[in-house]
């Protein structure tokens, strides 16, 4: 987006603040809550409305972990890193509960269940369960013939599923409701919706100048929380975090018993997900891996191909008799190593980024954003440093 001469002046006097947060999703709002708690004079600049991006469009899984399974995470990042990450997501949920989200009408503790798609994933889930138990996490396995899956649950009823790994402490919610709840707790921080940031100019010693669709903002520091869109404002980050679309489908089965899923399911290495929704609905999502090239985009429209795939999932896992209630899409920011990215993007440390949640922002971003503020203002610990992607210097 470019900003005309006339628009630059239209906002009246320039806004001044200590910290400008760009983006009003769960990351930006959580960062704002931390800034408010510290008494920092802060402004949130959101181009549309709070929760208009992925934070209001996701599946609402508040789930432990940030990969398809623990064994795979240990292989990808190392055992200790996987353990830290799982603990981080557990703590993220505890932090949200401390903010009162467990009092929301849509919030419920509902265990997640990873269902093996094939023998290879079955073996990974058995290994994951053993490793999780060793590392002190609650976990159980369910399978036909031993610890039994719920007999009425349509995902197991057909006898197709063979093994499930259950995470007992997980939860689900309506993410839009969660966003409204978090944002309503901001009192002193100014939230400016409908304000798109066009450019961020920095480099001098005197803070940062943001050109927006409603005039100029001057800030001592800026925290960019635009996730999928971060590369549009920060060219250096475009090669580290790229947009990827995710699509969703909500259906209402003709027979209400078909909506009685016991778990929030993660299928086929987490590439597909299914959970019970409000009012007798079942919510399906994912299937990106079969359409990866088409889904590598920043377009929030659903497509026929992926929606057809999701409808085949409905028939396979729940019932062929249903009505479609809603179809939608959202855009995620995938980082190169699938972990969040937090850090200064330029010399002087005036502009920071907190993004790259790679499909797991509801489980990661609240805690990560609060820590990003502490890292930016107090040099506090930063478990997801941007520097890991920068070339090593002598
Ligand atoms: C279909 C789908 C299902 C998902 N399911 C889950 C799930 O079940 N569990 C889970 O943990 N995660 C899930 N995710 C991922 C999760 O939704 C995201 O990781 C998380 O919402 C990212 O939050 P965010 O605040 O960083 O980004 P966003 O919520 O996308 O917020 C970024 C905001 O920045 C604004 N913005 C962009 N550019 C500008 C600009 N120039 N100026 C001002 N504002 C700007 C946008 O309007 C947007 O509101 C899913 C995502 C999708 C798309």
Which range does the strand content fall in?
25-35%
Counted by DSSP, the helix tally is: 11
CATH class of the largest domain: Alpha Beta
Secondary-structure class: alpha+beta
Rg (CA only): 21 Å
User: What is the chains' assembly state?
Assistant: single chain
Are any ligands bound, and if so which?
Answer: flavin-adenine dinucleotide
What's the main sheet like?
8 strands, mixed
What does the overall shape look like?
globular
Write the CATH architecture name of the largest domain.
3-Layer(bba) Sandwich
Provide an overview of this structure.
The protein is of the alpha+beta class and 394 residues long. The chain folds into two domains: 5-56 and 177-240 and 337-389, FAD/NAD(P)-binding domain (3-Layer(bba) Sandwich); 109-170 and 243-334, 2-Layer Sandwich (D-Amino Acid Oxidase, Chain A, domain 2), CATH 3.30.9. Helix content is 29%, strand content 27%. The protein has helices spanning 5-10, 26-37, 70-77, 79-98, 119-134, 154-157, 175-183, 230-233, 292-295, 304-317, 361-378, and strands at 15-22, 42-46, 61-62, 108-109, 112-115, 140-143, 163-167, 171-172, 190-193, 197-201, 208-212, 215-224, 241-253, 264-267, 272-276, 282-286, 322-335, 341-344, 351-355. Strands 1, 2, 9, 10, 11, 12, 18 and 19 form an eight-stranded mixed sheet that branches. Strands 6-7-5-14-15-16-13-17 form an eight-stranded mixed sheet, sandwiched between helices. Strand 14 (264-267) and strand 15 form a beta hairpin. Helix 2 packs across helix 11 and helix 3 packs across helix 4 (79-98). The protein is globular and about 70 Å long. The two termini are 38 Å apart. The mean pLDDT is 93. Bound molecules: flavin-adenine dinucleotide.
């Amino acid at each position: 987006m470019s900003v005309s001469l006339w628009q630059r002046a239209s906002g009246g006097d320039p806004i001044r603040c200590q910290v400008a947060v760009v983006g009003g999703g769960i990351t930006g709002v959580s960062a704002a809550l931390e800034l408010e708690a510290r008494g920092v004079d802060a402004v949130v600049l959101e181009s549309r409305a709070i929760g208009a991006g992925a934070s209001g469009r996701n599946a609402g899984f508040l789930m432990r972990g940030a990969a398809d399974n623990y064994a795979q995470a240990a292989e990808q990042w190392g055992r200790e890193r996987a353990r830290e990450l799982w603990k981080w997501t557990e703590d993220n949920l505890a932090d949200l509960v401390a903010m009162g989200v467990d009092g929301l009408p849509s919030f419920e503790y509902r265990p997640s269940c990873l269902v093996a798609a094939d023998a290879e994933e079955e073996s990974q889930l058995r290994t994951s369960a053993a490793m999780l138990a060793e590392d002190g996490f609650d976990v159980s396995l369910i399978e036909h013939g031993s610890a039994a899956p719920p007999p009425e649950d349509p995902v197991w009823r057909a006898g197709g599923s063979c093994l499930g790994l259950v995470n007992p402490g997980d939860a689900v919610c309506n993410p839009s409701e969660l966003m409204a709840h978090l944002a309503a707790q901001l009192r002193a921080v100014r939230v400016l919706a409908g304000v798109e940031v066009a450019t961020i100019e920095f480099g001098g010693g005197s803070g940062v100048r943001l050109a927006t669709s409603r005039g100029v903002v001057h800030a001592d520091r800026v925290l960019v929380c635009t996730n999928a869109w971060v590369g549009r404002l920060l060219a250096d980050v475009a090669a580290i975090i790229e947009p990827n679309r995710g699509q969703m489908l909500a259906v209402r089965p003709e027979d209400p018993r078909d909506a009685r899923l016991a778990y929030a399911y993660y299928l086929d290495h987490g590439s597909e997900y299914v959970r019970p929704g409000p009012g007798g609905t079942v919510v399906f999502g994912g299937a990106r891996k079969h359409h990866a090239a088409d889904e590598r985009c920043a377009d929030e429209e659903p497509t026929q191909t992926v929606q057809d795939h999701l409808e085949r999932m409905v028939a396979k896992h729940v019932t062929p008799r249903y009505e479609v209630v809603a179809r939608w899409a959202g855009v995620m920011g995938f980082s190169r190593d699938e972990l969040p990215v937090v850090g200064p993007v330029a010399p002087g440390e005036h502009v920071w980024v907190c993004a790259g949640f790679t499909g797991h922002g509801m489980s990661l971003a609240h805690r990560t954003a609060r820590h990003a503020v502490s890292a930016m203002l107090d040099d506090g610990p930063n478990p997801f440093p941007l520097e890991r992607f920068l070339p090593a210097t002598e």
